[in-house]
Amino acid sequence: MTDRHPPRRVRIVLADRRPASRRPVLRAAEVAEQTELGRELVRGLVRAQLVASIRVAALALALFVPLPLLFTLVPAFGAARVLGIPVAWWLLGVLAYPTLYLLARWHRRHAERIERDFTALLGRDEHR
């Protein structure tokens, strides 16, 4: 028995040159509808904000917690006076407020950057 027809040719494609017609992910809708992806996106936002807050709080604690220990352990430092005012008052009453203001400003700018990145991720790149 001989076959009159040659075997069928098989086409092998290594790479498809046509762009895949992928449906874009509507992240904003995912967040609004509170789907699993939306919850993960919001969880990531909250986690980033929490990390930024903890970082600022840790820095503030690292700056201010050692001061009472310093005044207690080194009495000469606590008794020192500048312009007739104790150094402790200068540090805690005068310099603390600008320091806290700068920390708060830095934190606000960081938080706004996190929120801008989040809105860009959602596809709602709003220019303010």
Account of the protein in words:
- This protein has 128 residues and is mainly α.
- The chain has one domain (27-122).
- It is built from five helices and two strands.
- The protein has helices at residues 27-32, 36-64, 66-73, 75-79, 87-122; strands at 81-82, 85-86.
- A two-stranded antiparallel ribbon has the order 1-2.
- A hairpin with a 2-residue loop joins strand 1 and strand 2.
- It starts with 26 loop residues before the first helix and ends in a 6-residue tail after the last helix.
- The model has no long low-confidence stretch (mean pLDDT 79).
Quick structural summary:
The protein is mainly alpha-helical and 128 residues long. The chain contains 5 helices and 2 strands; from the N terminus they run ααααββα.
Mean pLDDT over the full residue set: 79
Task: Note the overall shape.
Answer: rod-shaped
Our estimate of the beta-strand percent is: under 5%
Low-confidence regions: none
Our Rg estimate from Cα atoms comes to: 31 Å
Helix content: 55-70%
Number of helices: 5
The count of strands amounts to 2
- SS-based class: mainly alpha
How many domain units? 1
Q: Strand arrangement, largest sheet? A: 1-2
| SSE succession | HHHHEEH
Largest sheet, strands/sense/barrel: 2 strands, antiparallel
User: How far apart lie the N and C ends?
Assistant: 80 Å
